[in-house]
# Entry
Amino acid sequence: MSAPRRVLRAYGTAAAFLAAAVLLSAMVGAADLNPWATASALLDKLPFVDLHSGLSPLDQAVLFQIRMPRIVLGALVGGLLSLAGAGYQGVFRNPLVDSGLLGASAGAGLGATIAIVYLGGSGPATVPAAAFVGSLVGVAVAYLAGAAAGTGTATLLLAGLAVGMFLTAIQTLVLQRSAQDIQQVYSWLLGSLATGDWHQVVEILPYAAVSTLAILLHGRHLDVLSVGDEEARTLGMRPARIRLVVVAACALAAASAVAVSGLIGFVGIIVPHAVRRLAGTSYRLVLPLSLLFGAGFLVLADTLARTVLAPGELPIGVVTAVIGSPVFIWILRTTRAVRT
# Structure
């Protein structure tokens, strides 16, 4: 198959996967909505499309005020986590790296814990804001520590692990001093989109747009870095600056995602790996396809989270861990060398 046809097939598969995930999630739930009417109502929102869905006002409220905000938020979170994971993997030339290994998750967890314990989670935006700031601070400290110790990617990765362990230790200490908040903190740590609404979607959009654009524009640079720093320098590139920009953009993407969803693991590892199996190793393809497939993957995971134990709900982090753990083990078995 020619390269252009392979690219078109990959994008078509990703778009169809995301559309199917959104449609399935919109149809499934406690309220029984007619599938054809639901599809018509969604298509009616597209430009230049005018369809009569037949949904009652109550059903339309369920679809557009309860399910769709959660679906859109899930798509944004999944896409951002996958894109950040792919970006980190390009920077570190390692398919087993994601945001959790550079202090982002630990920083977000500490920020959320401090907000819950010491601020009482005052206001609906307090915990997300604290998690957002904590995630950025965690990555910044890890990057500065790694840059001070050396310039290699292995040094940065080890610094991220050390900072993550340190922040997790502080979080544990804070929790021990306030045992009554443990349940609330762990509920956040396991991840959930149950409170997703259009307000959160609007809040996350600017950060998502800036980080996504910055990462996607560096796809070609990551392809060159995958060959080696010397080759990049011969082409006039500055590897240290490229790493800084990509790491900062990935940190912003991951921070904005975990701020509204809590910690959700494995998405940033397994989705980019699956994309490389489908479309090859060029980051000009891996990055945008990870965005699309990650969005669809998390929408489906959230659908499982809210339906498997209905009317109860599983933490979405549990669902992604159940799916991601065996996939991660398979990745370890099939990765003969740590490279992308």
The chain has one domain: 3-334.
